[in-house]
Design brief:
Elements (H helix, E strand, L loop, with lengths): L1 H12 L7 H24 L1 H13 L3 E2 L10 E3 L5 E3 L2 E2 L4 H45 L5 H36 L11 H7 L4
Antiparallel strand pairs: 1-2, 2-3, 3-4
Helix pairs in contact: 1-4, 2-4, 3-4, 4-5
């Protein structure tokens, strides 16, 4: 990512070569400032977007997936009821508790994933600004280290997300065991968990 950002920034600055040096420098500085400002705006919205995801999902039914297209639509309500084809199963208190536990795990993973995605977008934009400033000033010594440090922070967040998958799978298995009707909708294989950190 860091080398691509530097290359893209260089391409952005090349058209300025035909201008006078002073004018090119002013325009390049403006490009760098705009990119940095854009990164700050994206970063500022990270928590807002993640919170919106949590709020939207928390207040609506959680749509369940399933491996077979022929499966009827299934959802878990905010109260912990399981709906299949729009009809409640009439879960008991313990079953509702398990349904809510699974639902909360799914919401937590989805919210964390949304936040990581926005952080990645902010990093990409910030990297362009850093590269533009460095190419303009000739001070490229620290840019790789700074961008790599930011990327490492995002990798750590992604790794923490992977660490949540076993709890999600455990909640899924507990619900599937207590509510057989839920079992066909239970997705996630053990390989999904094992491969998660390998793909970061």
């Amino acid at each position: 990512m860091k080398h691509a950002a530097r290359g893209f920034a260089l391409l952005m600055l090349l058209p300025l070569a035909g201008c006078g040096l002073e004018g090119a420098q002013d325009r390049a500085e403006d490009v760098a400032r705009r990119l940095e400002s854009a990164a700050e705006r994206v970063e500022a919205r990270t928590s807002e977007i993640a919170e919106r995801v949590r709020r939207d999902v928390a207040g609506s039914n959680l749509r369940l997936g399933g491996g077979a297209d022929a499966l009827p639509r299934a959802e878990i309500t905010p109260e912990g009821e399981l709906l299949i084809d729009g009809k409640p199963l009439g879960l008991g208190p313990e079953q509702r508790g398990l349904a809510l536990a699974y639902r909360n795990e799914v919401i937590g993973v989805a919210s964390a994933g949304a936040e990581i995605g926005v952080e990645g977008a902010a990093l990409a934009t910030r990297a362009l600004g850093e590269a533009a400033s460095a190419l303009l000033s000739g001070d490229t010594a620290g840019i790789d280290a700074r961008i790599e440090a930011e990327a490492e922070r995002i990798r750590a967040s992604a790794s923490a997300l992977c660490d949540r998958l076993p709890a999600l799978r455990q909640a899924r298995d507990a619900l599937a065991s207590a509510v057989p009707e839920f079992a066909p909708y239970a997705e996630m294989e053990l390989t999904d968990i094992n491969n998660c950190n390998k793909e970061i």
